[in-house]
Amino acid sequence: MKTNLVANCHKAITNYIHHTPVLSSSLINDIVGAELFFKCENFQRAGSYKIRGATNAILNLSEEQKSKGVVTHSSGNFAQALSLAAKSIGIRAYIVMPTSAPQVKMEAVKQYEGDIILCEPTLEAREKTAQDIVDKTGATFIHPSNNTNVIIGQGTAAFELLNKHANLDAIFCPVGGGGLIAGTCLAVNSHQNGCLVYGAEPFEADDAYRSLISGKIETNDTTNTIADGLKTQLGDKNFPIIKEHVSSIIRVTEEDIIEAMQLVWERMKIIIEPSSAVTVAATIKSKLLVKGKKVGIVISGGNVDLAKLPF
């Protein structure tokens, strides 16, 4: 996969996305002992980086495919992203969501005019329901993370970060389905500057950590984590990129995640979702690894039910 695809993708989607700010905090810098640059995708359209990949995937469809719409299964952020991207481009989006999905995310999908189809909260139920819609409507299925055009699109967040801060020593980002970190690897490779990529995961959903060790895609028996966006597993399109380019994955506890959410709120005055706080927590935990270095942190999203803040 040619790394210049990320730059070309950025040109294609630029009118459909926000070029989100990069913020910093001198106090958090002091805590970590490094110079941190937060790429704030919590300010992105639909509240997360996922609008990037969703838009790129739709733009790469044929006109006939667009006329029949798109379908995905998602517990939240990609559901919102694909709905909004489809609305912006003028096509229909069918969104399969588990009954356990946060109500705030279901309401957002409705606001973006996505057609919600509920299913049982299992991967098997999600996949079967999505396939039924494909069979019935002819809509194109777009996987939230294991889709080449989605992966390339997600890489544009790191692409923007590196365009602003080209001399980063490392970039940390969360790992759920693997689309964001795989895209980040492609963006970093296109800059050829020696920047390392680190992943962040909860101990309660550490399938990517174990996958890097075993060399094959692992699964989770349970996913008892507050980071609801990181409960999915890697796929055959993104794992080879991750396996080749990710330096390591740092795991954090549920307490670490909540403390990081609170720290960012108190010191930066922004709300980030638990899946983003995993990355902040992993950076704090990696003080010895990043001491004295310039580090990018991808804040993946800010879609939080404010009535259920954990701190």
TrEMBL record:
Keywords, comma-separated and alphabetical: Pyridoxal phosphate
Alphabetical list of InterPro entries matching this protein: TrpB-like_PALP, TrpB-like_PALP_sf
Cofactor: pyridoxal 5'-phosphate
Record domain Tryptophan synthase beta chain-like PALP: where: 13-301
Protein's recorded name: Pyridoxal-phosphate dependent enzyme
Domain of life: Bacteria
Natural source organism: Microcosmobacter mediterraneus
